[in-house]
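Posted in: Structural Biology > Protein-Ligand Complexes

Title: Requesting predicted complex, nicotinamide-adenine-dinucleotide in pocket

I'd be grateful if someone could produce the 3D structure tokens for the following input. Sequence and ligand are given below.
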Amino acid sequence: MLNVGIIGLGVGEQHIAGYLRHPACSVVAVCDIADKKRVMAQAKYPDVRVTADADEILTDPKIDVVSIASYDNYHYEHIVKGLSNGKHLFVEKPLCLHQHELEHIQALLQDRPHLKISSNLILRMSPRFRDLKCRIQKGELGTLYYIEADYHYGRIHKIHHGWRGSIPYYSVVLGGAVHMVDLLLWLTGDSVAEVAAVGTNIGSKGSCFKYNDTVVAILRCKSGMVAKVVANFPCVHPHFHALSVYGTKGSFINGTDHALLYTSHSAGTIPEVISTLYPGVHKGDLIYSFIEAILNDTEPEVSSNDVFRVMAVCFAIEQAARNGTVTSVCSVGEFNDGTHNTVWQADYRRGRKTGRA
Ligand SMILES: NC(=O)c1ccc[n+]([C@@H]2O[C@H](COP(=O)([O-])OP(=O)(O)OC[C@H]3O[C@@H](n4cnc5c(N)ncnc54)[C@H](O)[C@@H]3O)[C@@H](O)[C@H]2O)c1
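-- Reply #1 --
Done. Output follows.
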């Protein structure tokens, strides 16, 4: 049996169902700094230890796996403590908020190759996007040349009034567009060479939210494919992942009820309606694969390498939006040398560092 502890009982509470689905898991402790959440947890899960102190979970030798679902600004310190104490970690996105933190996490993991770390990049589990990936692999869309991936947040109150507006730093790229960057890399198997980006906070004028609430990034991939990734937080629009994938043989356009697949240039051709479930995911859906990976020493659905690559692209977007420069995404070993605006992209596999991807 693997003993599990969970830190943060917002989306973290939904992780419980994910762990319970695996017969080799037992959730033994949960943690929240809010009194109300601890009272709720004690009543709802009477056999589970409830604490206000994350260290109690991160340093407990009887706990094997920790879900980190605290506010974004705590993830890094919880990860460092968790890895240092031999825990496997399932971390809510974003993994961390700064590039130097990512580098440190990678170094810690490199010294502990027996530990697993993953992140809840949950859109991969959406039946709609899994269906799309199969179609891309079967060649139904031909050679991909352009992707638009817009994250419409649609819940402005959460950045203007909740913790997102009051923690020391919040990024709509790391907090939202990260899902679209993951979809882009996972669907195509491509990697990103360089990015340009601009941002605005017009939608948050007069609120306590001090950072860009909207960022638009243009990406050039290694294959030559181009993409646009957007984090659009203040939109007057329901929460939605506006994904359009264009290939030489077909175009996939996501919609709320269904997606459309166009496979003919002829005007008036009726597109195929794709009605696989969207989003159709539970926030704990990646956990089964994470536990299997720990038990069998295999890679989970979202590997550490996947997470590092996605984060590196997000940090490049952040840097490009901040500096107004085109920013390269690099592999391990290509640290910013002061002459190029490069952002480190890990290609870390079991302690092996590789050259430029
Ligand atoms: N993967 C996804 O699709 C997804 C969706 C929503 C949120 N998230 C992520 O989950 C994390 C939590 O967001 P949320 O929406 O659940 O917020 P939330 O406010 O609903 O819940 C967070 C809970 O964590 C507790 N908490 C915060 N910091 C803590 C700490 N240091 N120690 C113990 N408890 C702490 C808070 O008291 C709160 O109860 C964020 O990182 C967010 O980005 C991911």
